[in-house]
Write a structure and sequence with these properties.
The protein has a single domain, classed as Sandwich (Gamma-B Crystallin, domain 1). The protein is α+β, with helices and mostly antiparallel strands. The relative contact order is 0.15. It is 18% helix and 28% strand. Strand 6 and strand 7 form a beta hairpin. The protein has a six-stranded antiparallel beta sheet with strand order 1-2-4-3-5-8, with helices on one face. A three-stranded antiparallel beta sheet has the order 7-6-9, with no helix packed on it. Bound molecules: calcium ion (CA). Calcium ion (CA) binds next to loops.
């Protein structure tokens, strides 16, 4: 996961520099400080095939290749929860901050994923391979309670 964190930190730095043109003339010490105070923070929770990571970062958050990502805000913002391809999760109530909170998504895997309305089998919303959605829509916004646990 170290490489993943570094990618996120670099992406965050690039975003910060792009968003604030005034920093372009910053000297080297300021650049070092910006790197160390990067707002990106990723923590991962290992639990077999329900392994997931949580990323807190300002602005749009990149979803790595080979991962399925859900975001609590539209346009891939807010808090990102992500799973490596092949993983899933049966009940978002076990993930603080995620149940009934997903608003946008990125599927960077070759797997047909879906979100489930409830932890029990029922309504699904498909997320086809290599697609993304900046807004789940008025019906599905803030409703997802599982990731592909009851089929797609
Ligand atoms: Ca729900």
């Amino acid at each position: 996961m170290r490489a993943f964190k570094i990618v996120l930190a670099v992406a965050a730095l690039a975003f910060t520099m792009g968003a604030m043109p005034g920093t372009a003339s910053a000297d080297e010490s300021s650049l070092t400080e910006a790197t160390m105070s990067s707002p990106a923070s990723t923590t991962c929770h290992e639990s077999g095939l329900t392994r997931y990571c949580k990323t807190v970062q300002s602005g749009q958050i990149p979803c790595s290749g080979g991962w399925i990502c859900l975001f609590t805000d539209a346009d891939y913002r807010g808090v990102m929860f992500s799973w490596p391809a092949g993983n899933h999760h049966p009940n978002f109530a076990r993930i603080p901050g995620l149940n009934d909170a997903a608003t946008s998504w990125v599927n960077n895997t070759s797997i047909l994923y879906c979100i489930n309305w409830d932890a029990a089998p029922g309504l699904n919303n498909d997320m086809p391979p290599m697609t993304k959605g900046g807004y789940l829509g008025d019906v599905w916004n803030d409703q997802a309670s599982a990731l592909s646990s009851s089929g797609c």
